[in-house]
Structure formats: structure tokens, C-alpha cells
């Protein structure tokens, strides 16, 4: 899908660079979208029903939006965010939308504003600019579009030019939605919609109900998780099932980047302590760290790419968590150490080109000091795109400015949208492509790279690199 | 006061953005100055006497200037900085000025240079460029101006277009200077000159003479500080007196951003240990951390905005401290942690929109990783302007580039000059307005924000936001 | 040597700033090269033999190149990097060159690409652009040049316009190569090629064979290193020998910036523990930290400038180290703390203008928070140029943007190439001069600095400052 509105959006203002950037951007914009990591509900595409009302589609589930209003004193319940205890929240979509529009100025200068504006214009063809005064008009236009069949998920998927989309599931998921997608010719290995193996809820002893989750893991896998060996076997089984559902990668969301290579007896003792409910915070950290070594070894066997997302303090806003649960915008980043933390993993497997580890960060201070030197010095490492709070035009630019000189372009993994918001996928990729075009245009304008090589590079960044790093070997290229 | 010299100072060089920036800057430049935090001596405005000679006005008390010369081997005594033991220092203003001018090249590229140049031209109408060769001529021109009545503090205050200026006093201050200002129609609640409650010298057990200060607090407040409860009562009394003198905020300068919510018995035990001279460094840190919770609770009662200035290693240059005392340029920043440090305060009151906490930093590495996510996720938090070493064009720009995408503009608090140098107030605000104009111009040039919204935003940043965040409800708007 | 190719390389793209930058750059480009710190083999210039084949000259010893290929799965042995155990590696220069050229795209956007391209064109006059297709042609052109007498080291040294080049030797080095240079009129005090005193291998107890090295130090110095006092005497003797060979500085590569001022008995006890093989990691760290105080005291006696290079985790890639040894690209930076670490040194001697300490970093997060405030507040401190992973156009620019506002230009020490690659010296200095020209051009374009002062400043940065800070008092200026 080509962007039709504000065609110079985010391109450098200086006319010479803008002209170069336009040409480079056009090459990127013509590429299919590879979305190797995100949190879209696979049921959306499996069922292919019409989206709900505009507020439930675009506001209620978008924690970028609800947290900004929270920061100005508007409680999430007034925007319809469901409560843990079922206590009432606003349910009128139009009221939610108006309330949101009344605070639209808060988003000036934020990516949320760009994403939503471009989604309105490019996805839904709504050209009325959003404002408190136009809230109802925009709502009505959107609601009308959502009722049309060409705005159902599969139709949009095709229109968006998505070649492959990876969702993210727990090992406890029965993968039924992916089975439906496969049955419809949309899923399975090499398919358009695939899954990702995300085992945090059965690995992190500090996760709500970890031990009960491990019990369920036994049921889902048919392996006895009463022992550490059985637990590993269960994880291996689920990985095989995920691979059969098209997964090419696993994903690991840990508070830190610590890794640890325990001997099996030590690991088993830790596991047993956790299962008996006697693990403390240090045990939980050690177990998470050790399991990254186990997963690396499994990856060497089964070929899954490992994604590591460290550095989030989950549920930092405790009242928000108590009232609304996880994943509603209450997390905050913390300083993250990679050089010593990753050493055990890198000592064991860092020079093995058969392993692919994609490292993300919420701490941009590590770009030049840690991430670029590590990715530029170990065969197994690639750098993932700036993530979450860092998925923004300014940071995407700083990422290239910071990591390229030491890691080059080819130790990065291409853009990853990491989003729950299906309709925002094209604009998120579009923003990254525009920023990369601007960065490459500057290299050309400063005589640091010939234009033909810049042209090759931007296509690599937009399409070839994510396809190769994340092992999507199907598709049309 | 409009700037008449170098009208494109600090605006982006690219002509398209410069044209946009000029228009935006003009809107900001027309706004009154809100100076919600600084260290101007209120006696200056209470007494309204002529300023001393140029060196004593502009060089001797400006630790930005004296520390730069110190860094090149010129001892502060040679620039007239008073000594703790009264040992002799240079006293001839002209000699000090010549010595300073001889090192003027050291300030190339620094904000000190911009501030002083603009002060000379815009405040004093001295257009001879400063250099070693022109030192005497500039000195004479300045000295002549300082003798004229229109260069007295109150006349300048009016010419500067200051709507409100907050000074900073200890609870031990008798507020007599502010009483004089109120009597003259310049001070008191809603007045032009107000105070700020800064209790470090009675809160920080590591402050010189803390326990003696607490004894004096009893005298000033009429409360018995022999007990912790009495100590809290004394602080509350002084806050009431400060509010009566126009204060709308408190200010807290701590080495770290740690907060702690002790139960009253624990807090009292710590207090008693300190009063008996038995507190160690950890006790002092815990007490400071806990007192921030106490002050937050007091703020919920009395409405004072809390300012938190963490991260300075005070008196790092020990010889300088031994020879010249505090506040002469011997402090250095240290890495500052906010995410875990502020958690106790945020758990208790972070979601309460009745509380306003303005967070400052000397550690720009926290902009995207900690400060923007926190301010963008808690109702009570606002981000203060880059402070001290960070109050400079490059960092003001990086601040906007780093925090806006996550916290927006409206979780920031507007510019704060934090200066002791009364005559530099207009240029400091002017620099911030120019940098904001340049940043907004880039957003417009990159099609990220329509020009009319940028125009509204720059006025908000220059005037409306600081006025609202710091609760200045008087004035003419 | 003037650059003839891509004359606007790295200058700002905006035409107004580019025009200014060109003029400023021309002033810098006309200056001789001062290379106050690097790792060129002095034997190269002492013997003045023809260089080996292109691959052995430009690829095999350049760990920037070999580590990038390693990061993409090409083992260093396939590029001819020697092994510790003598196991075979690729020896055919042309094969190595082809293999390298096949991966040339990996270097897009890196300084290695700029350095190599400019070296090919400006040093060797090879204008065929390097690519997989042209690998043989470029190789042949290069090989032909290398056989010509004007491409011998001394001829190039003269053509490069190097005024002085400091190499780096261990106290265990007999300085024979420098004696040869002195005998030929190239070395000795005030000469064109001088040495630097780098004692890590006899100071760092964790260095391979530290104790045996200390035994050898006794032999080389004629002092008995059986006692701590004798050890210090031996170091003083070697410093005197180095000064006689032209050294003006020492250099210290430590994992951290920690300093410590032990009393002599404690230091002697630590030393003895190390010599008996009983020192642990904390002992080694304390001894390194303390020795920086000893070296500062020696510098106050003998005048050597102290260079401190902290923050490298040596041999992080353990397999690379096991296979190929030190200095082949296996190091990685770590977070580095200066404010508390340097306090003991600064408390003792930081305000003494007779001492010069040049601080380097691999952690750019310390630029504004720690390094600029320290260098801008202590007479003894200067900031070294961005080093190693940070020696790149983007970081050189960020360095100026980050440190200038607090430390000015005159607390920095000028560019330091720190390279083993003799032929890359001109381009490395050229890159820094271009970046400084661009930065100063922006200051001029934004009316922050008059053009005449920018012109004086760029010559100071390129020539006068390094000459003065590193005490090169000979030469033609």
C-alpha cells in the first residue's frame, strides 16, 4: 500500500536531501511488509469478522493512547479499558472517542499522532482532520467504513501488502486459531500468518501463576513437568507444534539481559525450588537467565530464531495493574546491561553462525556502547528495531546514527512493528522506511555512500534483511 | 523585552525551517516571562539599589565563568571569589574583568558566551564585542549604564517583561525581604516576586550543621523539634508562612531520586539517630528519601508543587569547597536512577492528579529511558527543563527530541532558568524559546505537525504551561 | 597532504553551512598532522622497508575489518589472522583480498569504509571503486604501488605531512627501534617519531604473565623489583629512558576509571600479595587504581602527560582470544564511571595545572554527565578524542555537541588516531577535521560564533591544541 497523504512526511527538510530521500523511500514503499514480530490476535484473521466500533478498534486497546491520557489525569476506565474485577467502565464508543479527541493536542510530536492520522487517511480514507470539533464526524466516517466488507481483516491484510505476519502465543495456547488459518490457506509453515513461541508465562517464576502454568504445560504437551527433564521435554514438544504452525522464532521478554549456563543438576534444583514455591527473586532471575541457554541449545536443534526483549519493569504503575491488569501501559524501561549479562550465552554459542539471536532494547544508551559492538563482533547476534517507547521517528534515526558505524546495516534485523494494533501495521513500517530513507539520503548527500548502494540498502532494510534474519523462506522473492 | 541583536540566533540554518522558526519564535518572544524557579537574591528587588561594578555583577558570582577559568588553571581568588577563611582575593573590578576577558575564547560554543553577549547587547546596549582588546571599553560602558536609574533591579524587572519570579529560601529564612516586597506591592500571593520552600538544610543530615539548623527551625517556627512529630509540625508551619509569602512550590535538591515510605516509628527512630549525631550515610539517604513522601503528603494538604532536583555530587572539587565554600562551581553530576527510586512515591501518590511533582535531571541518559516514560504514565509527574550543565541550546534541543515522543509537550513544565544571575534571565528564556521554535519548525517542515498547532504549542511552552504547572494564577492572562 | 577526492565528504548537506564548512575545513586541511597517540610499529619507520602485499597491509592487521566479517560468520583465519597455536590460516594475499571485497557491502555507513576508500584514492591513487568485481584490479594496482620507493613508510610519513607521531611501547621494550630512528635523525626528544610509556603489562596483575613481566622489568631497568619501592624505582627509570627516547606522555588502559590513594604500606602489601600469586580480582583492581596515583606523582616530577583509556572489557570474545590472542577485535566497551572513580586522583592533584591528564572513553553516555563537567572544572583534566568504536563521524560530531557547552573547545585535546594502520593516519585526521568544520559551520550559521573565531578555533583543534596538551614543543610552528 502506497501512502497517498503528506508524501514528504518525515523526510529531511533540506531540499537536496529530501529529493534523494524521496527516491530512496519510493523503493522501500514498493516492498511488501514483513512483520516478523507483533501481538495481533490471530483470531482476528482466523475469523475475519468486521471490526468493532472506532473507539474499540483504535482507542480502548491502544495503551500508547490511554497512558497519555492517564498522565493528564484521565483514568483508563473513562476510556473503556476493562477492569480486573469487572467494575464498570465507559461503554459508549462515541463517548470514548469524544473524550479521546478532546485530548488530541497531548499527542503533538508523538508517533501515536502520526500512526493514527495516517491510519485514518491511508487505511480508512477519512480526510477530516481529527480535533475536538470533528470528533463525531470522524467517528461516523470511520464507523461507516468498518461496516464495509473491504475493511475486514483479511481484505486489509491483502491491501496492506503484508507478505507474512507473525503473531505471538504462549506454549499454553492450543494454536487453534492458527489451525483455522492453515485450513483456510492463510497459515502454516511458509504461510501468510504464523505464530511465535513466547514461553515467559511458563519460564518466569515471577509470572502470575507460573507453577499452575507449568502444570497446564504438562497437559498441553503430554509430557510430565514434574521434573526438570520433563519440563524441558515439554517445551521442546511445544516448539515442534509451533514450528508446525509456521513459527520461525521464539521470543523472550525478561527484566534483564542476564544469561547463565548452569549445570543440569543446578538447574533442576532451581526448578524444583520454584515448583515447591520456595524460589526467591534471585532464584527466579537465575532460572530465567539459565533458560536462555537452554533455549539457545534448542534453537541449535530446531532452528528457531531467538528474540530477546529485555529491560521492561512490568506493571510499574501498580494501581493501574491492580485495576486493569497487564499490558495496559503500566510498564517502564530500566537501564539494561548486555556486555556482562550476555557473556555466558556468547561464550557458549556467540560465534556459531547457525544460531540467530535478535536483541532488542528499551535503553538507547546501550546503542553505541554495548549493542553495536556486540552485534558487530559475534556471528550469532543481530540487532532488532527500536522497540515500544523507542519505536518513534527520532529514535529510529538515532538508532541508525548510533549503531551503523560499528555494526553496519547488515547486523540489524529490519523493522519490527511489535504491535497489537493491526490497522497501524502499514504506517509503522512506513515511518521506519521514511526514517531510513532520510538517513541514507544524508549519507549520500555527505558523499559517504553512492546512491546506487543506498538504493540497494534501503530495499535490504525494508524487505530482504527481515525476511532472511527471521527465516521466512516462502513468499514471492 | 524583544531581542534586537542577531535575530536569527540559534534558529535552524536551513532556510525553509528558519522561516518557519522565525514566525514561531516571534510568538514566543512576545510572551511575558514566567520564572518559576531560580536563585535570585530577593533582597536585590526588595532594596532596588544600583548594581555593583561590572565584574561583581557579571563575573564574581557566576560559577559557570569562574569554573571554566579554574579548568584552565586560573584560581577563583584571582577573579574575586570570596574565601571561606577571609584570606585575600582580587578586589579590583577592572582587574577581574580584564582577567576574565583575556580568557574569553574559552567560552566559544558555550551558553555562557551567548548569555553574556546577549546580556551586554540587549540588557545594557553595549555593542562593542568583548575581547581582550576591548575589555576596558566594555567595562566602562557597562559601569556607566549601571549608574543610571533605569538599570536598577525593579526597572529591569519591568523591562524584562517578567510576570512572576520565584526566589528560593530556606525554612530558616525569616522572609523579611519578601515582606518588604509585599509591602511595596511587589510580593505576596499572586505577586510579582514570590518565594519557594527549599528545606534541604533542615532535611539532609549530611548538610553542614544539620542538627543546629533543626534547632533554629524550632525557633523560627515556634514548634518543638525535639521530636519527629514536632519536626514535621515545624515544617508545616514554615510552609504556611512561605505560602503566605506567595510560594507555590517547594524544591528538593537530593543526591539521588530515591524515595521511601517508612512507617512513622521508623522515621522517628531515624530522626532521633540523626539528632544524636549517630546517623550514617545510609541513614541520611533513607531519611532524605522518606522526607520526600512526607513532603508529598504535605503538598496534598497545602497545594505546593514539589520540585525534585536530584543527581548532583555536591562539592566534588574538595579544594574549591575548602577554600571558597558551596555554590562556586564545584559540583558534578552523577548517574541518576528514577524508575526504582521514585517507585515508593509513585505507588503512594503517582496517580493522584492533585499532586504535581516536577522532575529535573543532570543525567540526559534518562530522558528517553526513564523520565519520558514516567511522566507519560503518571498523573502527578511533569518534567522540568534541562538544568544547570544541561541548560544549553544543544541539550534543550535533545530534551525535546528525546522526551516529546513519549511524554508529549504537555507533561513538560516549560522553561526554568534556575539562575542566580538576574540580568541573564531574559536571555536564558530567549534561548529556550529559540530552541523550541527550531524544534517545532522541524516538526512542521517534516509534516509532523500543522503550523497552527505549532503556533499554539510554542505559546503554551513559553507561557501557559509554566503558569499552570507552577500554579501562578495571578497575572494578566 | 590535501584530499583530492570527494572534496565535500562529510560536510553538512545544507548549502549555506557547506560553504562555511568548506572554508573552515581548508584551514584545517593545511595543518601538519600531530599524532600524539597510536600503535604504529616503530620498526616500520626505523627499517623503512616496502610494505607487504595489499591484504597483509590493509586487511589482516585491521581488526575493524576482520571483526565485521566475523560478525557475519567469516572466521578470522580465513582472512589470514595468525593463530596462537600456529594452526594454519589463509596465506594467499589475493584470496584474502577477494574474500574481503566480497563482503564490502557490510561496511556501508562505517568509518572503515571511508578510511579504506580514502586511503586507496588519496594515498595510493587507486581510483577504481572497490567491489567484488574489481577486487583483483584494485589488488594489482595496489601491489604495483607498494613496490615503488615513494610508497615506503618514511616517504609516506613526509607526504602525509606528519609533524610528530608517537608510538606506544611497554616499559619492557628496549627502545632499540627508537634508537635507530634517533640515529637516523627521525627520533629522540623533539623528533618526528617518539615513544609513549604504556606500563599495563607490568601494572595490571590480571595481564598475562604479570609477575614474569615484573621480573623482566628488573632486568631492563637494573632495579630490584623484589620490593614495592624497587618496583616504583624501576618504573621511574624506564620513564626516564622513555623520555630520553622522546616520550612526552604515558598511557594507561584500565577496565575502569577507578583511582585510589593507598598509603605506602598498603600498596606494598598489595604488591607483595600479587607477586606471591595471591591477589584476587579486587586486589588487582585496587592496585591498578592506586598505581594511577603513583603515576600522577611521577608525572608531577618528570612532566609526562598521563593518558587514561578506561572502559574496555578485554577479550570479551573468548573463542577469538583463545584462537587468535589479544588485539584482534574481541574487546567490547562497558559502562564507565568517572565521577566517583577519579575522585581520589582529583582530590590529590586535580587542581594542579602542572599535571595533564587526558581522559578517553568508550561510553558516550558520560560525555555531558561526567566528562564535560569534570574537564570543565579541574585544571589537570583534558578530554581525549572519541576512541576506537567511537572514532567515527557521527560520534565525533556528537562529542562536540555534547562536551563543548560545558567544557568548551579548550579542555579537549585535539584528534588522536590511536591506530595501528599507518596508511590510515591522514584520512582519520581528515575525517575529524571535516566533522569539526561542520560543527563550527553550524555554530556560525546559527550566529553562535563569528566566522573569524571559528577559523581560529579549527586551527587550534587541528594543530595547536594537541601540540600544546601533549607537550610537543619542537616542530615548525
UniProtKB/TrEMBL annotation, chains A, B, C:
Catalytic activity: aldehydo-D-galacturonate = keto-D-tagaturonate; D-glucuronate = D-fructuronate
UniProt entry keywords in alphabetical sequence: Isomerase
Entry's EC annotation: 5.3.1.12
UniProt GO BP: D-galacturonate catabolic process; D-glucuronate catabolic process
Pathway(s): Carbohydrate metabolism; pentose and glucuronate interconversion
Listed transmembrane segments: none
Record-level Gene Ontology MF annotations: glucuronate isomerase activity
Family of the protein in this entry: Belongs to the metallo-dependent hydrolases superfamily. Uronate isomerase family.
HAMAP family given in the database record: UxaC
Name assigned to this protein: Uronate isomerase
Protein source organism: Micromonospora auratinigra
